[in-house]
Write a structure and sequence with these properties.
This protein is α/β, with parallel strands linked by helices. It has one domain: TIM Barrel, CATH 3.20.20. Helices cover 44% and strands 14% of the residues. It contains twelve helices and eight strands. The protein has an eight-stranded parallel beta barrel, surrounded by seven helices. α7 links the parallel β4 and β5. α6 packs parallel to α7. It is globular, with a radius of gyration of 18 Å. The relative contact order is 0.15.
Length: 280
C-alpha cells in the first residue's frame, strides 16, 4: 500500500491541531534552568516531560539532534524513545539534523531518518542543499517512498546565511531562489500541498524571494531570536497558510511544569491562528 504523503498528513495536522512546530532543544543552560543536571538523566527527564506535555496536542515536534548526539549512544537512545513516543501520541516528528552530503553518505543519512525500520524513523528531516540540490536526491527519493517529508534550508534566520543564500548565480537569481525553484519543481501540483518544505527564517522582515513552492514553510526565529507571529505576513505574504512557525525556547522556558508548557504552546497556537484569521 502506498503511504499517505507527508504533505497531506501535515496539512491535516495543521488544520486540526493548529500550525505550530514545538522544538525540543535540550541546551545545557535550559536543563539547568529546569533544575536538571546536564547529563543523560537530565536529558531523559527533560525530553520525557516535553513529549508528555506536547505530543498529544501540537502538530509537529522538532527535536534538535545535536543536543542528543553530544551524549553519545545514551543520548541517541533517549532520542529514539522520544521519536517513538511522540509519534504514538499523534505528533508528527521533524528531526532537525540538517544533514548534507553526496552519494552513498547522503543515502545513509536518508536511511537513518526516513527508513521505517530505523530506530530514528521520523516523519520528516531537515537537510542542507549547499552541495547542490541534486545531492539531496537520495533523501528526496527515500522520503517520497516512505510518505515522509524533507525540509530544505533556503533562507535561514542566522545573519551569516546571507553571504551564501543571497549570492547571485549567472541567470540573476539568488542561490536561495534557485533552491526554492527546485523545491517547487519537486512538489509539482501535489494536493493539498507537497512534501518538500523550505526553511525560511521569520526574522527576515521581507524574504525577497518567491516562496510559492506548493509545500510547507518552516519558520524558525520566533521568540528568542526576536520575531513574533505578527511578523509572519510580512515575510511570507500570500504563502502564509503554508507556514509552520517553529517555537522552541518560547515554549520550553515554561518548563518543567507540564501545565506551563501546555499553556505556552496553546498560546502560540492561538497567536498564529489569529494571524491567519486576519489574513485569509
Amino acid at each position: 500500500m502506498t503511504p499517505e504523503p507527508f504533505g497531506a498528513r501535515l496539512r491535516r495536522a495543521m488544520d486540526t491541531r493548529g500550525a505550530l512546530c514545538a522544538g525540543i532543544d535540550p541546551h545545557s543552560s535550559l536543563l539547568r534552568s529546569w533544575g536538571l543536571n546536564d547529563d543523560v538523566a537530565g536529558l531523559e527527564r527533560f525530553t520525557r516531560t516535553c513529549v508528555e506535555a506536547l505530543a498529544d496536542r501540537v502538530a509537529v515536534l522538532k527535536p534538535q539532534s545535536a543536543f542528543f548526539e553530544r551524549f553519545g549512544s545514551r543520548g541517541l537512545a533517549v532520542l529514539e524513545k522520544a521519536v517513538e513516543e511522540a509519534r504514538d501520541a499523534g505528533a508528527l516528528v521533524l528531526m532537525d539534523a540538517k544533514r548534507g552530503d553526496i552519494g552513498s553518505t547522503m543515502a545513509a543519512y536518508a536511511a537513518t531518518y526516513l527508513d521505517k525500520d530505523s530506530p530514528l524513523f521520523s516523519d520528516a528531516v531537515t537537510v542542507s542543499p549547499y552541495l547542490g540540490f541534486g545531492s539531496l536526491r537520495p533523501a528526496l527519493d527515500a522520503a517520497a517512498a516512505a510518505g515522509c517529508g524533507v525540509f530544505v534550508l533556503a533562507l535561514t534566520s542566522n545573519p551569516e546565511g546571507a553571504e551564501v543564500q543571497r549570492s547571485h548565480v549567472s541567470d540573476g537569481r539568488t542561490v536561495a531562489q534557485v533552491m526554492l525553484d527546485h523545491m517547487a519543481a519537486e512538489n509539482g501540483d501535489a494536493r493539498p500541498m507537497g512534501s518538500v518544505g523550505a526553511v525560511v527564517g521569520a526574522t527576515l522582515g521581507d524574504a525577497g524571494a518567491d516562496l510559492d513552492i506548493n509545500g510547507p514553510l518552516l519558520a524558525p526565529g520566533i521568540g528568542a531570536q526576536g520575531a513574533t507571529m505578527a511578523d509572519l505576513p510580512g515575510v511570507f505574504g500570500p504563502a502564509l497558510r503554508q507556514v509552520l512557525p517553529n517555537v522552541s525556547r518560547g515554549v520550553l522556558r515554561h518548563g518543567p511544569d507540564i501545565a506551563g508548557l501546555r499553556t505556552a504552546a496553546e498560546r502560540m497556537t492561538d497567536e498564529i491562528g489569529a494571524v491567519l484569521a486576519r489574513h485569509p
